[in-house]
Amino acid sequence: MRRRRGRPINGWLIVDKPTGMTSTQVVGRAKRLFDAQKVGHGGTLDPLATGLLPLAFGTATKTVPYVMDGTKIYRFTLKLGESRDSDDADGNVTGHSDVRPTDDELRAALPALTGDIMQVPPVFSALKVAGERAYDMARDGRPPELPPRPARVDRFELVERVDQDTAIFEVESGKGVYMRALARDVALACGTLGHIIALRRLRVGPFTEADAITLDKIAPNDDNAHASPELLRPVATALADIPALALTADEAASLLHGQALSLVDLMGRIPQTEEGEPVRAMEGGRVLGICRLEDGLLRPVRIL
């Protein structure tokens, strides 16, 4: 069996992604800098976008779904009066409009784009259509007809009107919401056209801008050295938003062997949560894994 190349290091690195790089390029760069065996990311950012790109090293990759399910906060700048095929400044111009909505008209369009909505994704997206990526089809001059998809937008605010052509918005949302589509749709709702010219992610789950580090701060001074694993945050930090449940040593041992625990024995310790929602199983300060409360049992879902 071939040994996997790189160091077996575990934890989270919260990168402040620069514009112009893809998320995959950031992962590759971090993997080389740390000489890490395994690295993934917690939610793609477009090349144009900046901001939080959480990178999962080693066993932290097991917690990626819980980060991606967490709340995200974005700030984007909308350019009014012009549409692009990619719905952002990297695309080709597809239309013009002389209509410039007022601030009140922009705000009036936001409630219809807030809450549980149906959203048509941008054609330049990674969604698959008959086995092909939508962005590959669009680049080949075969833009697909993408059906609307459910999306959840918890907050959508106009935060600044720079000038008649430019407005800045802040959005709080769940996973799978396309900011480029929101920008396109708020312009259309006001009888004009628009696209994103700047996009920044400010929060992903438990991670905020205060946690972020730029790629140039990661690189070691010695050309032959690798970045220090001390820069990584513990694997368990990704689960900070999930309610905790304290277990005894015996209960922890059973759980680690894949056994479900009776909720009757855990009465008085069970956090306030809906049935089927994840809980974070703890033994002292140690995170054991993610479980669910189902059918009167605490069932292990992902052991760390």
Keywords:
304 residues; alpha+beta; Pseudouridine synthase; Archaeosine Trna-guanine Transglycosylase, Chain: A, domain 4; nine-stranded mixed beta sheet; five-stranded mixed beta sheet; 7 helices; tRNA_psdUridine_synth_TruB; EC 5.4.99.25; isomerase; RNA binding; tRNA pseudouridine(55) synthase activity
Number of DSSP helices?
7
Oligomerization state of this entry?
Answer: single chain
Total count of strands: 18
**What gap, in angstroms, lies between the N and C termini?**
24 Å
At the fold tier of CATH, the topology name of the largest domain is Pseudouridine synthase
Regions with little confidence, pLDDT below 50 for 5+ residues: none
Number of domains: 3
The CATH architecture term of the largest domain is 2-Layer Sandwich
Strand content: 25-35%
Largest sheet: 9 strands, mixed
CATH homology superfamily name of the largest domain: Pseudouridine synthase
Radius of gyration from the CA trace? Answer: 22 Å
One letter per element, helices H and strands E, the order comes to EHEEHEEEHEEEHEEHEEHEHEEEE
CATH uppermost class of the largest domain: Alpha Beta
Question: Quick one: overall form?
Answer: globular
Proportion of helical residues:
10-25%
Q: What is the structural class?
A: alpha+beta
Task: Give average pLDDT, whole number.
Answer: 89
Provide an overview of this structure.
This protein has 304 residues and is α+β, with helices and mostly antiparallel strands. It folds into 3 domains: 11-70 and 207-237, Pseudouridine synthase (2-Layer Sandwich); 72-204, Pseudouridine synthase (2-Layer Sandwich); 242-303, Roll (Archaeosine Trna-guanine Transglycosylase, Chain: A, domain 4). The chain is built from 7 helices and 18 strands. Strands 1, 2, 3, 4, 7, 10, 11, 12 and 13 form a 9-stranded mixed β-sheet that branches. Strands 14-16-17-18-15 form a 5-stranded mixed β-sheet, covered by helices on one side. A two-stranded antiparallel sheet has the order 5-6. A hairpin with a 2-residue loop joins strand 10 and strand 11. The chain is globular, with a radius of gyration of 22 Å. Residues 180-239 form the tRNA pseudouridylate synthase B C-terminal domain. Responsible for synthesis of pseudouridine from uracil-55 in the psi GC loop of transfer RNAs. One of its GO terms (biological process) is tRNA pseudouridine synthesis. Keywords: Isomerase, Lyase, tRNA processing.
